[in-house]
Each structure stands twice: as structure tokens, then as C-alpha cells.
Amino acid sequence: MATVRQFQAVPAGGVAGDELRAAMGLFATGVTVITTCDRTGRPFGSTANAVSSVSLRPPLVLACLREESETLAALLEHRQFAINVLRSSQTELSDRFARRTDETGADWDTVAHRIVGGVPVLEGAIATLRCDLHDVADGGDHSVVVGHVTELDRLGPDDAEPLLFYAGSYRSLGAQPPPPQLSELTEIALPSRYGSLRALSLSEDEQQCSVAVVCGEPRDRTGVLVYGHSPCVLGDALGSTACAGRARLDRAMAAMRVDDCGVAVYHRDALAPLGACCAAGAATVPPLSDGAIEALALAVRTLRLRAVRLVATPADAEAAARAGVPIGELIDPDRL
Question: Whole-prediction pTM value?
Fold first, then answer.
């Protein structure tokens, strides 16, 4: 005999809000940040997972924002907004935009973003859809905002790991293992001429070596100096003072000692040449490899750094932002 489930009677007004929240929490969603500006140009943003496509012709999408949301008020003024689809490494951005905006707007100073067509766009998002306001509908304690998509950027590959939300917490697709926590990484003391440091192993792959050299206690901090080092046999193994890469590393480590805080990420592929920086010449900073960018992003994510002061070229900074590194300030490697 089939079992008949008995449902508790509910008032005419419908189920209780907390019961609905718990049930809909079992509907897994992605996580986005809705961004816009008010008439003065002050940026606003709100985390939202009630987002969906509506129509392909015309291209319409919708997002639901709380009636008391400052972002909603600014959006209705400006009539333009962006939907920033977050990647798994951007939980800090999701948490930040789930809170009420600082009244001065100064907290945007620590958020890596750019203004495109008068709308703030978050760096490192998997995809960004820029929209003109098409319609607004009543959604009870929320407003349903429908946008006409005018431009979009797909900044991540099709297999990029998105940020998911399920049953009240962040989740992963499971296609990739979750990033290791600091306590799970191999950590050793590293006495050096820079003082007492720590080395965190970021990779156990035989084909590559990734190590984060940690100065002080940068974990969970904002504005930490971060430097990605390109290895060179002349500078690293032989200690050549003529090596431009070694000179950049020395300057970066000296700056970290002044701050008593910082992270230098060393990545080497087994088949990669070790003299690239010297071959390029002192005036040229060799680009970081894809593996080095991934190691940099892993170190930042594992240490939970926010709005880092990244020592890198603009090209490397762009690649790092795509990998999810939250950049608060970009520092020229040759101007430390």
C-alpha cells in the first residue's frame, strides 16, 4: 500500500516564511552580485541568488531584491545594472555584499572593480551581464527587476568552478576538490636572511612545485602585500646579484618585513626554463605561467586574503583577477 504523506494545515495566508525559506533552500542556485550606481555615481551592490533568464528574444533576465535594499533604490534611479556571476573563490565578495553598504560608500575602496558604461563591474566574476531596466514587478517583500541584457562578458572557461548555495551554505559542483584549508597544508619554519618565515606547500604534483612563503600573520587580513615570483637558476639557485628577478624578490621581501606581513608565491613547472627573467633582460618582467597564477589564487584563497596589494604587471594582474584574486591595489614590480 502506498504511504500517504500528511501535511499540516496552514492558515489561509500560506506557509510560514521560515518554512518556505528552508524548503527553497534545497533548491541549489548560483550566487550573483547585483551592482549599480545612484545618480551621483556612488556604487551599490547586493548579493542575490534569486536570478534567472526570462527570454532569449528579446534577451531578458530577472533578479529579486528586497524592498528596503539600497541597491534597489539606486537601480531604480539609474535604470542600469549588472549581474556578476561569482566563482567558488569569491565567497568573501558574496558575504560582503550580503551586508548593508557603508553610508559613505568607502567600503568599495577594498573591492576590485571597474566602471563600465556607468555601472560597477566586479573583477574576476565568471560572467557579467550589463542590463537596462526593462520592467519592475511586485514580489511581496521583494521587487522583481527585469533587465534587458545589452552587453555581456564571459570571463571564465566553461568548466570554471561557480559559487553555489544550498541548504544555507556554500557548496561546490564536486568536479574539483575543495581548496585545502591552511591547517591541511604542509607547513615548515623557514629561517632566512629576511627573518623567520613560514613555507606552505601548495602542490604535491611531481611536475610542478608551488610554495607560499609567508611573512607575519596575513590570514584573514585586508591589504596584504602579495608577490608572485618567477624562478631563475641564476638568481635563486646561484644567488646571482645580477639577476633582475632576484632583485625584485629582494625588494618584495624587504617591503613585507617593513609591513611585518606578506606572501610571496613561488611556482616552478618541471619543464619550464629557469633563466627566463635573465634572458628577458632587467627591463622586462617575464609573465607568470598559468600554473603560477593558479598557485597565487590558491594561496590568496587559502589564507582568505581580501583586497590584496598585488605586485605584478597589468597583464598578470588581469589573469590573477580572472582566477579570483581580489585586487585592491596593483604595484609595479620595478617600483617597490
Answer: 0.52
